[in-house]
Amino acid sequence: MFPKVSLVIPVYNVEKYLHRCVDSILNQTFQDFEIILINDGSQDKSGEICDEYAKKDKRIKVLHKKNARVSAARNDGLKMAKGKYIGFIDSDDWIEPEMYQEMYNKANELNLDIVMCDYKKRLEDYENRRTQPIRGGFYSKKDIKNELFKCLIMFDHIEFPPTISNCVCLLSLEFLRKNNLYYDEDIHYCEDSIFGSKVMYHATNFYYLKDRHYYNYFYNPNSTTNTYNEKKWNNYLKINERLIKYFGKTSEFDFSRQIKINMLYFTLNMLGQINFSARKNEEKLYMIKEIMYHPNVTNIFKNFKLPNISWRGKVIILLIKFKMVRLYFFLVLDKRYKQELISG
């Protein structure tokens, strides 16, 4: 007898958080699931914790493998899954007890390809409830095209699309496999974004459980999402090229502006992270120049209308457009560096 829901959890060096994550699933009001723990080459006791859970509960499967990052781990789970629906959970996060009961009931009732809830960003003593600027409820294929294609890749105000967090989605496994929807295994940052856009593009229907904040996204300052890494830029360039190849030639909708805004977001993100890196000022100037003069960045501004954002944001975008490296550098510098310039 196959489970109704498969839950895939990539695990990498999270011994501090793994119990909280898995226990939150075991404590669900919905119990017809399997948990697939992908131990992605952990160097701490995470692998042992996975095995302990598997010994106690036959619904829990464990795959130990060499580290290949989250995209490959999720694909491993996709291939192993036996449920009618599949969900992904990050191992340092946790979920509310009613999450999968509500999501499965809605998905099963309406035979959905995707159902999505809201989430809370959590620190140890703080929470911020997040919701998407789209309506709640049911979307047909026509509704998806009319209402969601315009924010499939990026909102015009430089925000990620509704499906940016795949972990708040419950997905039909048959739908994913039928459309050959898997993660790009060489994408190690923002893998949720490109996968979510492809999923929504192919979906025949969708339901949004708006204001149901069932997923707890833990802000871990040591996670790859929140730390500076030079490899991110090449990763972002790769995503940009994949988006152009996947969505650039479709006749259903013109996604070209969204692709440009996505590349603009990546540019702003990298420039911001360079500012807060430990590099010397001369190195930072060189790195900023390399990004501003990159062809993918130059291409953003061909026949490009500035997005509807704050005047400060528009100024920064114009500095990038006109490649005003030193002025940008001065305007966004940390206070301590500004003081160095003034006093030096």
TrEMBL record:
This is Cellulose synthase/poly-beta-1,6-N-acetylglucosamine synthase-like glycosyltransferase. PANTHER family: GLYCOSYLTRANSFERASE, GLYCOSYLTRANSFERASE EPSH-RELATED. SUPFAM superfamilies: Nucleotide-diphospho-sugar transferases. The keyword Glycosyltransferase applies. Residues 6-134 form the Glycosyltransferase 2-like domain. It comes from Neobacillus bataviensis. Keywords: Glycosyltransferase, Transferase. GO terms for molecular function: glycosyltransferase activity. Belongs to the glycosyltransferase 2 family. It holds the Pfam family Glycos_transf_2. The keyword Cytoplasm does not apply. It comes from the Bacteria.
